[in-house]
Design a protein that fits this description.
heterodimer, A: alpha+beta, five-stranded antiparallel beta sheet, four-stranded antiparallel beta sheet, 18 helices, B: six-stranded mixed beta sheet, 13 helices, 26 strands, extended
Chain lengths: 595, 518
């Protein structure tokens, strides 16, 4: 990024420059920067995201009428550059360029191939590579045929010399996936929402919400609700349905610990608060009335209740179903049950402190509590879901075929090949998303809106075209307050209905696209005096600050050394200039909100 | 994340929105508090978007005006791309004689907007917030006759003749014969015209398409195609009220590289030079319809930036300088007006940017000094040609016999309840009747005075075929209820009323009319 753009002295140099109007050797960087959030996020999807997403796809398992247990596990997914149709025997060049797609009113798309292994009775049979559709490719991304071309070559291929990319071509139209504002990931926020009261008997408007985002950018909301009888339930959504479970059940299902341990974790530092202690004891007793004494019993209980709602085969035990639920629905950004447990402990403490007025509500409207959902990340989440949907359609086809043949049907590479013919086309649904902006999704992807996700990048003039790539939509969720704070421009918003909802990024603002590794920060923080959970606490928690790193509750820091540690962190922070790391391990934050 | 300057280390540091809340960042050195401030902004304009920082002197304008400019900048007819030939957008605007602004912020060069210019430097005289746009630039702001409309401007004829704000629209029209034939799998129709066909001779090429450069008007031969099954040639005509030129034609194949002369994309060029009613705007949210610009537009809108631009533009043109219009460059102690005034003086102009002008009506010198200077003007895409709507008689609705709505269908503009109230309050009954009855669905109806029904009167059966011709005229209306003919009267009612009575009859409600002569 050129840092001095705003200090350029304008001049008439173009009037006298003898090469003005001829393509330069290199593209003009500031213009390329404008679409970078789009192009980079798509590249992220191609290079990292898809690999991570595929690993997190849960295998599809089912039984055939003859008793064989089949499973499909996706190993890899790849996107290829756009090429001409296989049946085309006349073309000289196999590559398809965007200019052709625009002029022919077709979609600029490349093959999408997945590799999966299929197993019978847990015995691997074969690895299959299969193109499951053609998906739209972002112009100038790493799978675009224009990538890395010089201005001269771009002009040769019917493009602008300064072509910036960042959009898709769907039926000849240039489509941009809008950037959306989302609640900040992996950060537990105290909120007051009157609508929460209608969620059930005794529900209050108080809650602690956390939007958990996995490595592959798929998100899920968990809400810890405060109930007027002094207990708390955790709410989560699965396939667009909302479920509420008493949080104590989940805590006990996460770790095999005694009630005393849970009690100590929750009550430490609040020994004087008899009401709070009463609430904790009440919740623990509630679990006991269902005879949930051990972790296994809890998991069995949860599993038996949720089995009907989860797409798991019937041979899974209740305990396994319970574990699946905890893995897929509770604090999904953490892989480890101990981490999930510790985070829930933190959230419960925060919730009770909040309900008593010991800490303030946080505003969902403040940019500090928001983040951007980039086009590539949304695309990735959609693609991941479509792979799952494809596997499910494959399963459905096989079961349908098996039904007609009754007991004699066996899954072989031939019958599998037959089944492929009747599976869903992944490309169609992605194209639909881009051409209409409407999302059809099984899970809802943790988004707050399902329409208006893609818009035409209308080439009316250069300004209008540019601003499509810089626009940020806030959605209906943040409609109450319209603040900006230097990341979004206070001037550039339309008047009328979308005023303040449709914003534009400031000229020099960039979007964080990669998740930087933060493992080393854990060690660093410990060296600065943070006491981790597995060590004895640094004293009564009354005098300690909780420390969180990327939505993981690390441990506590004693207030006596907090100030010193903070200064030291700032020292380190100033050294990380230009690394662009977005440090979520925020200590200064916890000082304001003592729980 | 965004870059700020780390003061301790004098380096660039990227900060996120989460940490910003807990950081001490100053805007410039003057605001730094020693020991507290750790970071500094690179410049004041860092809070602006890429578009907002292209507004010159935006710090001198009232805030909403800057927001309007962000809106209007996006509606300007400009240069969206250079590869017009390789594009097939529905509608592409193109400005024919763009200029590079003489007064511009640094970000203009940063983004190299010169490659995609959008407006023209116009001389503007403030007369009556009516911008008198003279040559390829000069706006005078004067309150002239007192009849001047606010937000209007006058274009100098010679400026127009030299090409001021001339533009055109490229429209791509896809003609898919396979879709027309409604046969997905076979080629039925192909483009082509018969040699010696009177309809197409000299108008279309043998391929059935119009030659490049053809001027098309409503009703002209557009293209022709041939049916492979019936051997029949068909000719389609151009059905648009606005004439255009054929700019170029693309013959489009299919995915497999086969299928020829089945699908074409005809790109038409429509000339859109400024005419009365087109919209223009400066870069300060000061829009106007091309007639006149009046000084009353300044006090309420407070677009000081535009006045500075006007002076800076004049000075820029005189000295040949390019002016830096980056916001926040000038301060209270060093006002831009003072600097510009001195520059104007040096060029031999009045310090305040005013000049003596002569009335264009009778050639007398105007008593007042007129503020006049050069302002960069954008032509907005809203043009009368796309918007005007006029109708005398025309298509009517099948059911109600009232005029249809919609500009495309030649419909009218609704004269609604509020408009009706206005006419009632003015007591203009005749006009009201004209609008709501005579120009709408006036019709004659037979009504039976005795029973008051308009549904019961009927006409005698037609006379037998061999009866005298005069018998046809002697057919009488009679009431089917009262069985008499002398009670039938002819009255003028809106057609919908008849319809309403019929609909009410369907739900067993009878409407009785009390008819009296007066």
């Amino acid at each position: 990024m050129t840092e001095t753009g705003d200090r350029i002295q304008p001049s008439f140099k173009n009037l006298t420059h003898k090469d003005y109007g001829r393509p330069n050797d290199k593209q003009h960087m500031p213009l390329q920067e404008l679409t970078r959030p789009h192009v980079d996020s798509f590249n992220y999807m191609l290079e990292e995201g898809l690999g991570k997403a595929v690993q997190l796809i849960y295998p599809v398992e089912f039984a055939l009428p003859n008793g064989d247990r089949i499973s499909f596990t996706v190993l890899d997914a790849n996107v290829y550059k756009p090429v001409v149709s296989q049946s085309n025997k006349t073309s000289v060049n196999l590559k398809v360029y965007p200019a052709e797609c625009r002029q022919r009113f077709v979609t600029y798309k490349g093959n999408f191939q997945i590799t999966f292994v299929w197993k019978i009775n847990n015995k691997p049979q074969d690895t299959v590579e299969r193109t499951i559709g053609e998906i739209p490719i972002m112009v100038k991304s790493k799978r675009c045929n224009l990538q890395g071309l010089s201005p001269k070559e771009l002009v040769k291929h019917g493009e602008e010399a300064e072509e910036m990319g960042g959009y898709f071509i769907v039926n000849g139209l240039e489509k941009v996936i809008r950037m959306l504002i989302m609640p900040r990931r992996n950060y537990a926020m105290c909120m007051i929402r009157p609508s929460w009261r209608s969620r059930g008997k005794q529900y209050t408007e108080y809650g602690v919400q956390i939007k958990c985002v996995r490595q592959d950018q798929t998100g899920m909301n968990n809400v810890l609700h405060y109930l007027s009888n002094g207990s708390a339930t955790i709410g989560f959504g699965y396939l667009k349905e909302l479920f509420y479970v008493p949080v104590m059940f989940i805590l006990k299902g996460l770790m095999n610990v005694t009630d005393k341990y849970i009690y100590d974790q929750l009550v430490n530092g609040k020994e004087d608060d008899s009401f709070y202690k009463g609430c904790i004891v009440f919740m623990l007793r509630q679990a006991l009335t269902e005879d949930l004494t051990t972790q296994t019993k809890v998991l069995q209980y949860i599993g038996s209740k949720f089995r009907i709602k989860l797409p798991l085969p019937e041979w899974y035990s209740d305990e396994e179903v319970g574990q699946f639920l905890i893995r897929e629905c509770i604090c999904i950004h953490l892989e480890n049950n101990t981490d999930k447990f510790n985070l829930l402990i933190f959230m419960i403490r925060k919730l009770f402190a909040f309900s008593k007025g010991e800490c303030a509500a946080e505003s969902a409207d403040s940019p500090a509590n928001q983040e951007l959902l980039l086009g590539g990340h949304l695309y990735l989440a959609v693609l991941k879901e479509k792979i799952e949907a494809w596997l499910i359609s494959l399963k459905a086809t096989i079961l349908r075929n098996a039904k007609t043949k009754e007991g004699t049907y066996k899954l072989t590479s031939k019958t599998l090949e037959d089944a492929f013919r009747h599976t869903a086309d992944v490309g169609k649904s992605v194209e639909y998303l881009l051409s209409t902006g409407n999302l059809i999704s099984r899970s809802g992807l943790g988004l707050m809106q399902t329409s208006g996700l893609a818009v035409v990048a209308d080439k009316l003039n250069f300004y209008r075209y540019l601003s499509h790539f810089r626009s940020v939509h806030r959605g209906a969720f943040f409609a109450e307050m319209r603040t900006t704070a230097v990341f979004l421009c206070p001037v550039h918003t339309p008047d009328g209905a979308p005023c303040g909802l449709l914003n534009h990024m400031t000229a020099f603002c960039q979007a964080v696209n990669i998740q930087y590794p933060t493992a080393h920060l854990y060690k660093l923080l410990i060296s600065l005096g943070v006491t981790p959970f597995d060590a004895p606490p640094p004293g009564n928690l009354k005098d300690c600050f909780p420390v969180l790193l990327d939505g993981r509750h690390m441990g506590y820091l004693h207030s006596s050394i907090a100030k010193k540690s903070r200064t030291e962190i700032e020292g380190y922070e100033s050294q990380r200039f230009e690394t662009g790391s977005n440090n979520d391990g925020d200590m200064s934050d916890s000082q304001d909100r003592i729980c | 994340m965004r870059p700020v300057k780390n003061l301790a280390l004098d380096t660039t540091e990227m900060i996120g929105s989460f940490e910003q809340v807990y950081m001490d960042i100053c805007i410039n050195q003057n605001e730094a508090i020693p020991g507290v401030t750790t970071h500094e902004e690179f410049s004041e304009i860092r809070m602006l978007s890429s578009l907002a920082c292209l507004t010159p002197y935006s710090d001198c304008n009232q805030s909403p005006r800057n927001m309007y400019q962000c809106q209007m900048g996006k509606q300007t007819m400009g240069t969206p791309c250079h590869a017009y030939k390789y594009r097939a957008d529905n509608k592409l605007y193109r400005i024919q004689t763009p200029q590079s602004p003489m007064v511009r912020p640094g970000m203009h060069d940063h983004y190299d907007v010169d490659n995609y210019p959008m407006g023209t430097n116009a001389v503007v005289a403030v007369i009556s917030y009516t911008a008198y746009i003279l040559t390829n630039a000069v706006v005078a702001v004067i309150s002239y006759t007192g009849y001047d409309m606010e937000d209007a401007m006058i274009l100098n004829k010679s400026a127009f003749d030299r090409g001021f704000a001339h533009g055109s629209i490229y429209k791509s029209e896809l003609i898919d014969l396979r879709k027309k034939a409604q046969d997905k799998y076979r080629t039925v129709l192909v483009f082509g015209s018969k040699a010696g066909d009177k309809r197409t001779e000299g108008k279309l090429d043998p391929d059935g398409l119009p030659p490049i450069g053809t001027y098309l008007q409503d009703g002209d031969v557009y293209y022709s195609f041939y049916n492979l099954q019936t051997g029949e040639y068909r000719v389609e005509r151009y059905r648009k009220s606005e004439p255009s030129y054929v700019d170029h034609i693309k013959i489009i194949g299919n995915d497999t590289g086969t299928g020829d002369m089945e699908k074409v994309c005809i790109v038409l060029r429509i000339v859109r030079n400024p005419i009365v009613g087109d919209k223009f705007s400066s870069r300060h949210g000061q829009k106007g319809i091309y007639i006149i610009f009046n000084p009353h537009g300044y006090p309420s809108r407070m677009t000081i930036g535009m006045m500075i631009e006007s002076m800076a533009g004049k000075s820029a043109a005189s000295h040949g300088h390019c002016y830096d219009a980056t916001p926040f460059k000038y301060t209270e102690d060093q006002p831009p007006i003072d600097y510009m005034g001195k520059m104007l003086n040096a060029a031999g102009y009045n310090y305040y940017g005013t000049e003596r002008l002569y009335s264009g009506v009778d050639g007398r010198e105007l008593e007042a000094d007129i503020f006049i200077g050069i302002v960069y003007y954008q032509r907005l895409r809203h043009m009368v040609s796309d918007k005007f709507q006029v109708r005398t008689t025309g298509p009517i609705d099948q059911v109600t016999h009232q005029p249809v709505k919609g500009r495309k269908r030649g419909g009218g503009i609704r004269f609604g309840e509020m408009e009706r109230d206005a006419l009632i309050s003015h007591g203009s009954a005749f006009l009201l009747q004209d609008r709501l009855l005579n120009c709408s669905d006036s019709s004659l109806a037979h009504v039976c005075k005795k029973c008051g029904s308009i549904l019961s009167p009927y006409m005698d059966r037609p006379p037998s075929a061999n009866a005298a011709v005069s018998a046809e005229q002697e057919r009488k209306w009679s009431c089917s209820i009262c069985k008499q003919t002398n009670s039938i009267e002819l009255i003028k009612v809106p057609y919908v009323f008849k319809y309403l009575v019929a609909e009410l009859a369907a739900i067993n409600i009878k409407v009785n009319l009390d008819i009296q002569a007066f």
